[in-house]
Fold:
Amino acid sequence: MLLRWYCRVVASEITDERSIQTRIADDLRARIEIGEYAAGDQLPTYEQLTQRYLCSSGVARKAIDLLRQQGLVVSKQGKGVFVRERARPKRHGIDRYARSRWKQGGTAIHDAEAGNQGLSVKQLYRELGEVPAPPAVAAAFGIEEGAPVWVRKRTTIVDGRPHQLADSYYPLDLAVGTRLTEENSGPGGGFARLDEAGDPLAEIREEWSARMPSSPESVSLQLPGGTPVIDLTRIVYDTKGRAVEVMLAVIAADTVEISYRFPIPD
Amino acid sequence: MLLRWYCRVVASEITDERSIQTRIADDLRARIEIGEYAAGDQLPTYEQLTQRYLCSSGVARKAIDLLRQQGLVVSKQGKGVFVRERARPKRHGIDRYARSRWKQGGTAIHDAEAGNQGLSVKQLYRELGEVPAPPAVAAAFGIEEGAPVWVRKRTTIVDGRPHQLADSYYPLDLAVGTRLTEENSGPGGGFARLDEAGDPLAEIREEWSARMPSSPESVSLQLPGGTPVIDLTRIVYDTKGRAVEVMLAVIAADTVEISYRFPIPD
DNA sequence: TAGTGGTCTAGACCACTAG
DNA sequence: TAGTGGTCTAGACCACTAT
Structure:
């Protein structure tokens, strides 16, 4: 044992100074990248890794942990560790808000977007009712924090996997008495109802950032290890400049690709 | 020892079935969220954690690993584990492309944007020269893969921290003979040079997604554990619809917040 | 039943920080 | 020098999957 320890120290001084677990992870990553292990392939078992790299099982596990954090592999208990199949991301362009989509009725915008890409879409309601306004919502509506607003909290499931947790908030006067208070908001979805209930919709502002999920979010979105989430705040304004909807969404980052096109501003 | 094992099993059956490390991590996360540990505070040492939660040091480490993956804490060897100070994200709105910014000269757009927020900006060049076009670039320019293009690869450092790795590609005929081939591209930056060299710039398309960084990216961007990156592809078109710049950037996600505003399309 | 990954222990030793 | 986090070992036992 002492002998092996010396070997390792010498080797690490000659070759490089990173930890063993990091070097194993990097070696495996390189092999994945050159295609030695293709998407869906099983990686060597921990037993095999300890033999190949002359390390303890703890170190082999640490190495695989690193790859999992990088989103390269997924583990399946009792089966093995596998190179991750890339989920096919759904594109989200600004076209998704085209008036023609929801004016004609049919489906809600998100359904339409995913549906256009040949994917099945389902919405699960987590909450539908009157709640006190969270800070960001109160700020957008210009009301006091905690004042009552209407909320629709739902989980969108695309192709059998949770895709986003979306919470839409509405001013009470626009929501109450419309189908925004029902699970099925009717043809054209929420946008159509807002457009009917008040002034026509005019502008959208979106604000995005990315971060790692909290534990409950990991569970709700069934996120594979090493998958970030995207935080989206979307505010919809009508022609009078009034904010009529604030949506706070947490999106599984491995399921989206976002695109915008716009003229260069003056 | 056996006794403790039984205690634990019984307790876990009564209360919940998650692993000890997860429960420790969740408990600490809750304490951070209610402010028991504020940003910058030191968490209990591993020694203290093993005593408080009656677990081995390995489990305490696993718990902290989880918090690190969630981007909540950072470790400093020899000092302790600390609640992470949130880097103040720099806002990136579409105003950043406003013609008035680069037409007047002064600084390049990214400098201008960060500079407006009172931050110091530096650019380190990693490469500047003629290279074969990568696939995405060739596709945008409508040329063959591997055909020569001009590239400026640089690392932007904002407020002393690497913020993004940005690689801008230009068609040779627009770059050669202009200051795009120099490290200092002159007043107004790359956009101003493109505008002068060819037709006026007209439109921008951006496409982005979020993922975990690879090991080299972690190092280059000095990413704290649990920090995702944003992959951004930006293509600039001139009034004739020709793609005149393709930028491929990898951005540290904890340093940006991206915003868009646009009228609802028809 | 054998093989896999997941959790956990109880240590040893290293590298870094601070008084 | 004492205290901290980082790496690594050599196991034990659990939960799940296949045969």
Notes: Strands of chain A lie at 73-76, 80-83, 90-92, 121-132, 148-158, 161-170, 201-211, 229-238, 243-252, 256-263. Chain A has two domains: 2-83, 90-258. Residues 5, 45-47, 61, 64, 75-81 of chain A lie near DNA strand C (CB under 10 Å from a C1').
